[in-house]
Design goal:
Elements: E1 6-10, H1 20-23, H2 25-33, E2 37-42, E3 55-60, H3 64-81, H4 88-97, H5 100-130, H6 138-142, E4 147-149, H7 154-164, E5 173-175, H8 181-196
Helix pairs in contact: 5-8, 7-8
Amino acid sequence: EKDIILIMDSVFLGFISGDPCKDFSPVRTLLQKGIEFFATISFSKSLGLYSERVGCLLYRTNSRKTSEIIFKRIFDLVAGAYMSPPKRGAEIVSSILSDPHLISAWKEEINKIIERITKTRKELHQFFILNKTPGNWSRILNQKGIFVFFDLSIEQIEYLRSKHFIFMLKNGRANISSLNGHEICRLASSIHDCLTIN
């Protein structure tokens, strides 16, 4: 009706629920409802293949003609960019996804990462509550994935960068997946300072 098409970006499959298939369910729902959409899927992060850039683009249309036009445009873009992409990463992904034991090991690794991130979220939350840091910190516990969105202004984010060398996006998004105990405390202390300065 408004000539809008949905584009979904699935970069961290498994990092929400612990099950990549479950995290893919929004795409399945769109397919079942017959909605036209594009979906990008990357295994670079969820399988630790950062330098391989392994992924794909899925699309669904309600018209064979539209589908053929899209395919031709995508093919032309790919041909203009690299024609034959490296296959090493795709072979690694294929070998994992075709072996039930490797899939199980992958899910185990993802769940360990989620446990670690959940622990980090709890430690951040506990710091803010114990130190009476202004703000609603329950959102840290309710968010999913490797990122936390801190409710900070652009000025506060700039203060964190210039005063504490803490870098995050202007929308307050920060990756907490690799923070250790000292870094968790440093991040929390810096945010506390940022929110309590006169």
